[in-house]
Structures are given as structure tokens and as C-alpha cells.
Design brief:
Strand order of the largest sheet: 3-2-5-7-6
Number of domains: 1
CATH superfamily: Uracil-DNA glycosylase-like domain
Radius of gyration: 16 Å
Order of helices and strands: EEHHEEHEHEEHEEH
Number of strands: 9
Shape: globular
């Protein structure tokens, strides 16, 4: 990553060091870690993708706490939501489309690097490298932004303008390691306020998203955390 991304665009700074405990990549290893900082033994089969890690200030809070799970609403809701969706933490690699941190400003909205075409291209190439290494069977995106970025810059498929209009599963997408399925989930940070808008087949809300996940791969792993 240190060879791929510099120079970072205005408003984006590199991650100073890895957070010791559980945290999304690139702030941490992207794996569910035990209390001793060791990864769970199972091979990740699901790639969980956000837009970006967050601001430098949020990263520093998580680094000092030793884990993003202690400081992040996203993680706090993920711990409630994923078991309901049939997703096991120990089978997930949690990453982002854009590397680096927001230097300052709001934690939500368009990532500053998204306005730099060369940085976006480097991000797409690096994401493809992550696919080669992790070889996921399923990709789940958190919110609309990573879905749009992957659709446009990696898989070259059209995506809807709003998540509520994303009413199907992207199956059989080509990648370097073979075919992969993709499911777009409501972003966990405001999950319970927004998931009611989701529809899939004859289902609504979290039931719809669970059905999307279960239909995306032949034998999804149950949550065995």
C-alpha cells in the first residue's frame, strides 16, 4: 500500500500505524481479533467493504482504545446486525475502497480522495489486489458509496442512485480469483433508522437483507462467533 497510494490527495493522510485490535483495514488488519490480538482461525470468505476508514481523529481514538469496536457506532451495530444476517465475524475481512484517512472535517459524505481521478484508479487497482489475496465468495458493501465505487471502477456494472432502489443481488461478478457475489447492505451507523426502506422479493427491512445474503452464496456460514 505504501508503494501504491502516495501522493495522497488534498484532505487525505496515510494511516500512521495499525490499530492493535479489531478494526477495519487500513486502520487495522480487518480481521476479528481475540483479546490477545490474535486472529480467529477461519479463513475469511466474506469481504465487508466500506467507503473509507474515517477521520484522523476517529482513528486516533480507536488506536488509543486498542480497538475500533470500542469507539465506533458502525462496529457496535455490526455486532448486533451481522448475526441476524447469517454473517460470522470470524469469516469476514473488513476493508474499505479508499485507503488513507480524512485529515479533518465530517466523518460522513463524499471521501476527499473520490474527487481525484488518479487516486480513484489507484484505489480500484488496490482493491483488485485485495480480491486476489483474500479470494472472497461474497462481498457485502456498507451503504451506497462503496457499492457505487465498486460498480463503476471495479466490476463495471450499473448501480442504482439510492440504496432503497437496490432490490437484487449481484451474482457471478468476474474477479481475478473467479466469480464473486455482491450484496449491498444498509450502512450500520444508522442501520435501524434506514433498513426499513429495503425490499427483496416479498420481504422488507432486515429480513430482506438477510434473504439477500442467504441467496448470494450456496452455503453461507452461520454465525459461530
Amino acid at each position: 500500500m505504501s508503494e501504491t497510494f502516495p501522493p495522497y490527495p488534498k484532505g487525505v493522510v496515510p494511516v500512521p500505524e495499525l490499530i492493535r485490535g479489531t478494526a477495519f483495514f487500513p486502520g487495522g488488519l480487518g480481521l476479528w481479533l481475540d483479546e490477545h490480538g490474535s486472529a480467529e482461525p477461519d479463513t475469511p470468505e466474506v469481504m465487508v467493504v466500506g467507503q473509507d476508514f474515517n477521520t484522523l481523529a476517529s482513528y486516533e481514538n480507536a488506536r488509543k482504545a486498542g480497538s475500533e469496536t470500542k469507539t465506533s457506532r458502525t462496529w457496535q451495530n455490526i455486532e448486533k446486525i451481522f448475526p441476524k444476517l447469517g454473517l460470522s465475524f470470524r469469516h469476514c475481512f473488513c476493508t474499505n475502497f479508499y485507503m488513507g484517512l480524512r485529515e479533518n472535517g465530517p466523518e460522513t459524505g463524499i471521501f476527499p480522495g473520490a474527487r481525484d481521478p488518479e487516486f480513484v484508479r489507484r484505489s480500484a487497482r488496490f482493491f483488485e489486489r485485495q480480491l486476489e489475496v483474500m479470494k472472497p465468495k461474497l462481498i457485502v458493501t456498507l451503504g451506497l458509496a462503496p457499492l457505487a465505487a465498486l460498480g463503476k471502477h471495479v466490476f463495471h456494472v450499473p448501480t442504482p442512485p439510492t440504496l432503497s432502489r437496490c432490490v437484487d443481488v449481484y451474482r457471478d461478478l468476474p474477479s481475478a480469483h473467479g466469480r464473486v457475489a455482491l450484496v449491498a447492505l444498509t450502512h450500520p451507523s444508522l442501520y435501524f433508522a434506514n433498513v426499513g426502506r429495503r425490499r427483496f422479493q416479498c420481504l422488507a427491512g432486515i429480513d430482506a437483507e438477510r434473504a439477500m445474503v442467504l441467496s448470494a452464496v450456496p452455503s453461507p456460514n452461520p454465525d459461530r462467533r
